[in-house]
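Please, structure for the following, as tokens.
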Amino acid sequence: MSDDLSIATGNKIEMYQSIIPQIAALIEGEQDLIANLANVAAALKEQFGWWWVGFYLVKNNELVLGPFQGPVACTRIHKGRGVCGAAWQQEKTIIVPDVEKFPGHIACSSLSKSEIVVPIFSQQQVVGVLDVDSEVLNFFDATDERYLKEIVDLLKIK
């Protein structure tokens, strides 16, 4: 495992294709979930410079804040509430071009303008979500969805 990342420039696809094998190398052989989530959040933040990137984990029937990079965040989210809770409840990725137009959006930061939330599955059950916010409207798309799903699949959460 390397302790340094090689940060790619270029288009979004090239950036994902560069960071994914590095993330795989970072977490390979490490059994501690929190360590892996922390490194994944840090690698994504460093590569893309997003406003906020992090994880929420399902605990006692709510999403609880896990490792993240960015400003302070909401600590607990109920199922169905906000973008994270909706992605958990619907068991699908949700891309929000303008968070102000999302019913029930939880505004942890007024600087967040768009968001993508990718559920993390284990044994066909949502066990957490990867949440990414941008300070730019309409920032995330199907490319982000594809590659972020690939990244959460690397985690192999049990």
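The chain has a mean pLDDT of 92. Residues 118 and 149 are 7 Å apart (CA to CA).
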